[in-house]
Each structure stands twice: as C-alpha cells, then as structure tokens.
UniProtKB/TrEMBL annotation:
PANTHER family: GLYCOSYLTRANSFERASE 8 DOMAIN-CONTAINING PROTEIN, LIPOPOLYSACCHARIDE 1,3-GALACTOSYLTRANSFERASE. Transmembrane segments: none annotated. This is Hexosyltransferase. Residues 313-332 are annotated as: Disordered. Residues 1-26 form the signal peptide. It comes from Durusdinium trenchii.
Length: 606
C-alpha cells in the first residue's frame, strides 16, 4: 500500500485525541455498553441530528479520503477533531476513530487495537448491526478497516502479538484463517488483481472456489460469499437483492464464527490477507445496498408461494397454523375457578415475583390500585411458591392495613384492596421451569437470577387464569395510568397479534438473539425492533390456539447449547412473536430507569 500523506505534524495529536473519546481515558467501556449505546440510534446516518455537526458532510469527506487516502486533504485536521464531539452519532464516531488510527504511530495504533473496543472485540460488539445494515447506514466503516488492517499487517510487532496471543483461538478445530496455497492461493491472487484494477470480481471463480475448497469455516469462503453478494447487487432486481443479502449474511457468519467457542476479534480479522473488507468497501462506495434488511424478508413483488425454511423450523411468524387437534387443551383442574373476589371482572392483571422482589410487587400493586378508575373491573392475580405464601400474605396485610377486605372475598387467598380483586395462585417450580429453559450460570451473574421460576409463569397463565385477555406486568413496574385503559386499547389495529407491547426500536432482535447461528430461522429480520415483555397485553385465545407455550418449549430444546439465545424468558417470545405483536404508544412503557413507568412519561409526573 502507498504511504499516506502526513505533512501536517499535528495529525498524530488529533488522532490520539479523537480516539480517546471512548478508549484511552481511564477505563474501557464493556462491549455490552457499546452495543447498547449504538443500538439507541434510530437515525443511523445521523442526518437528523441537531448537535452542530453536518454528518452528511462528514460522510462525504470520509468517502473522499478513501478514494485518495495518500493525498493531502486540507480538512483532515478538523475532521479528526470531531472525534471529541459530544454526540450520539455512534457509527460516525467509530469511523472517525479508525480514521484517527490511520495517522497514529504503529506503536499507538497497535496498542489501541489490542486494548480497546476498536480491535479487541468482535465487530458485532462494537457495531451491533449486520454487515448489510452497517453498509445501509452509509458510513464507510469497511473501507477504513481495510486501510487500518493493511497498516497493521505491515508491522512485525503486530505479527508477534498475533502469533503469541490470537492464533490458538483462530484456526482451532479446523477453521482456516488465511490462504493455504492451492485453490485458496489461486483464488486470493485473482481477487487481489481484480480489486487493484477496479474490475468486477468474477462470480464464476467464486462459485468454483466454493465448490473445491474445504468444507470447514474459512475467511476465504467468507470472501467468496461477499463477492457473490456484490455481483448480484450489480443487477437491478428485487429477487437478486434478496439473494445478495443472504450471501452477505453467509460471508459474515464465516468471518465471525472461525474461532470455535467465541467470535473472531477485529484485530484477528485485520491480520488476514483475505480481502473481504476490500469487497465490502466497494459495496459501500457504490451505494448498492438501498433497503434495510427488515424489508427483505420476502422479496418485493415475489409472487411464488412463501418459501418455507428447513424442516423442523416454523414458517415466518414463528407458527405453523395448527389443526384443532394440535391446539393444547388445558389439563383438568389446571384452570382454577374464578374466586369470589374476582367475579364479574373483565380486566385481569398478572404479577409474579419472589421474596427478593416483594417491595417491588407491593409498590406495583399500590400504584396500580391508585391509578384505577374502575376498581370493580380489575382482578390482580399474584403468583407465589408454597414457601412464599405466608410471607406474601403478611406483607399484604401490613402494607394495606385497613384497606384489605377479606370477609366477602371467599377465602384466605382471595381478597379486595380498595375494591380491586386480588387472587393468589400457588404454583410449583416444576410446573413452569424445565431443564430446557434454565439459563447459563454466567448469564445469571451478569443479569441476576433469570432462573427464578417466577420469570416463566408468563408462559403458563392459562393454567390458572380463565380470561380472554391478560395484562402482564413485571414487579419492577410503577403504574402511572389506568390499567383498564391499557387493557381496552390493545388489539385495536390487528386481529393477528398475540401480544400488545411497546417496541424497543433502539434494541433490534439481534441484541437478544444470535441471528447468525446456523440454528436460527432464515426468515428472522435481525434489525426488527424488540419489545420489553415486562409490560404486555396477551390475547389468551390466540395464545392457546397457536399453542405458544409448546412452541416456546420446542425452541428451548433447540437452544440446548445456547446457539439461539443466552438469556431467559424474553428471547423465545421475541423469536416467536416479533411479527405477532401490536405496537402500542411508548407512553405505556417508559423504561431505561430503575423502574418502568407505565402510563405517563417521567416529565409528566410532577
């Protein structure tokens, strides 16, 4: 590669400052923090931001730089200075960080890559988007990675670190990180010549290479898949655009899965001679990706019957329409009779939390009761293990002394509080928690005890509650509106929705699900919004008709090796019901605080 123009001595200083915004100052953010930060972006190209920066001009300058990186550019200093900008334009800042590395000394560049999120983690942990959607954001991240990678491979110190620290994880268990002569070497040579001349990359050569190379994972196969994606994008065809996206996803999976047991880091990818980033740089520069991946689940104007995924997987939407014999029938005695406290009530609310969540449960109950305008409509169903019942009843009597009416309610576990009916349901752990649903110990250390049986009660509500519609609330919720209004407004716009919930547009499905796992359904749109299952309305009739509970257990069995998700009860709902969920206004679930505020935004609480 030609040496870069560096006549301005201050560029190295700007480079260091620009990188310090996220990586050098004190402590390095964890990958989870970065993923959450980026996932908060609704406008990925940042054109609508009002932070004093013309981000469209920044993108234009970055592409200009990539056309002639070794030429002098008078605006480079001011561009690098933007790395210190206080902004939420996260991908833009990542691009500026890599731009800064280009002008660092080899020692500083290597240090930044080895000890920060720019190189020490998989690309996904830095930018949690698919390659397709990263390119669709219009930021030239892959072109910048290509230049930095070429610079890093040119230093002996990088190779020493790579062989001493990285290699044992990269080519293990048969994965191929770099070309190994023979068919690999010949294909790599052709690619380098074509990229150097700017000529179209030969699709027939890529296909021949894929047919002759070895069957295991390799960066060479990744490059071949990306070549095929670029070739298909040259043709203006909706169907071929869909196929191009699929080839790009295959290439991405080869790159990210070549290290058995974990994903490959950006630094490790930089040390490969395969020009996969060069191929993606051409796709970026030509602006061939015009649609986000969520719009390509089925090719536009595709009139053939809906394609079904591989045998054993559900069709899009997560369900095969069951026959009447397939619909799960409640076991005798599972659905309890409605207590006297809940007679003639149509708004049913479910809450479940163990002793550690007792204060939250009581606060949720108090706020729900105070916000309800028609107490005679509401029945709250509280779930407890047998060992928890005595303490739960004592807490209710203490907290709602003088307001709790048990005389006319019909039993010890049925009572009213300010007119709102309350029914306590006793369940056993074996009724809701199977070995298939148990969460890894490592995850529970990160997020708390997701193996608590209460987390899985939501899948079995039909055992205890006979209602056509149920409002489910987590015990960390403060209700600032009328739960009857939430109940009544749900399912007004969709007859096919099983759930009604607030979308988390800043957290795509790929934040919770391992979208590139070979076991993941091919129809899953990785960038579709997720939702918080801690506040939702459930259409119980449709839930039962579609046999959702059994579908959850089926997918949990397929997730035995944690190939689909790691966390507990929310991911299977996202996988099965992402397109069977009706979005309700954000005001009904204002999260991001220690508690979720339901019904009113925090600014309205004063």
């Amino acid at each position: 590669m030609r040496s870069l123009h560096a006549s301005n001595a201050h560029l190295a200083t700007w480079a260091t400052w620009a990188t310090c915004w996220a990586v050098v100052a004190g402590s390095t953010p964890s990958p989870a923090v970065v993923a959450e930060k980026h996932a908060s972006e609704l406008d990925l190209n940042c054109d609508s931001y009002e932070d004093g920066v013309d981000w469209s001009e920044v993108r234009k300058r970055l592409f200009e730089f990539l056309v002639n990186p070794s030429e002098p550019h008078p605006w480079l200093g001011s561009l690098l200075a933007l790395g210190r900008t206080q902004t939420d334009c996260y991908i833009g800042l990542c691009c500026l960080g890599y731009l800064a590395m280009i002008f660092m000394s080899p020692e500083k560049r290597l240090k930044a890559l080895m000890h920060t999120l720019f190189g020490s983690v998989p690309l996904w942990d830095q930018i949690p988007l698919s390659y397709w959607d990263t390119i669709h954001s219009r930021w030239p991240i892959f072109g910048l990675l290509e230049i930095v990678g070429a610079q890093v491979r040119d230093t002996s110190e990088a190779w020493e670190l790579f062989w001493n620290q990285s290699v044992p994880a990269v080519p293990s268990d048969g994965a191929r990180w770099d070309a190994d002569g023979g068919v690999d070497g010949r294909f790599q040579e052709i690619l380098e010549k074509q990229l150097a001349t700017g000529a179209p990359l030969p699709s027939y050569t890529a296909i021949r290479f894929l047919s002759k190379t070895w069957p295991g994972c390799s960066f060479g196969k990744a490059t071949a898949f990306l070549v095929l994606a670029e070739r298909l994008l040259l043709v203006d065809s909706n169907v071929l655009t869909q196929a191009a996206k699929d080839f790009m996803a295959l290439g991405e999976a080869q790159l990210d899965r070549c290290a058995v047991g974990r994903n490959v880091t950006v630094f490790e990818q930089m040390m490969s001679e395969w020009p996969f980033w060069g191929v993606l740089r051409r796709v970026e520069a030509n602006e061939r990706v015009k649609l986000p991946s969520e719009q390509l689940r089925t090719p536009p104007q595709y009139m053939s019957p809906v394609l079904r995924p591989a045998a054993g997987l559900h069709q899009p939407g997560g369900f095969q329409h069951p026959s009447s014999s397939d619909v799960a029938k409640p076991k005798d005695g599972n659905i309890q009779t409605i207590s006297r406290a809940c007679e003639a009530r149509d708004v049913h609310v479910a809450l479940s939390g163990d002793g550690r969540h007792m204060e939250g449960l009581l606060a949720a109950m108090q706020s729900l009761i105070l916000g309800t305008k028609a107490a005679e409509r509401v029945c709250v169903h509280v779930f407890a293990l047998k060992a928890e019942v005595t303490g739960l009843l004592a807490a209710f009597r203490c907290s709602f002394e003088g307001r709790l009416d048990q005389e006319d309610a019909g039993g010890e576990y049925d009572f009213r509080i300010d007119g709102v009916g309350v029914q306590i349901h006793i369940f056993t752990e074996s009724e809701v928690l199977t070995d298939d649903l148990v969460v890894d110990a490592g995850v529970t250390l990160e997020t708390g005890d997701l193996n608590a049986p209460h987390n899985f009660v939501r899948f079995y509500l039909a055992k205890w509650i006979s209602a056509s519609r149920i409002v489910y609330l987590d015990t960390d919720v403060i209700v600032k509106g009328d739960v009857c209004e939430l109940h009544d407004m749900a399912f007004q716009s969709s007859r096919e929705a099983v759930l009604a919930a607030v979308p988390r547009r800043h957290l795509p499905l790929s934040f919770y699900l391992k979208v590139f796992s070979p076991k993941m359904p091919i129809w899953l749109p990785s960038t579709a919004p997720s939702f918080n299952a801690g506040v939702m309305v459930i259409d119980m009739k449709l839930w039962e008709r579609l046999n959702v509970t059994n579908a959850v257990l089926k997918w949990a069995r397929q997730n035995k090796d944690r190939d689909l998700w790691r966390h507990g009860s929310q991911p299977p709902l996202l996988l099965l019901l992402y397109d069977r969920t009706e979005w309700i206004p954000d005001v009904w679930n204002v999260d991001g605080r220690s508690l979720s505020w339901i019904g009113l935004l925090p600014s309205q609480l004063d």
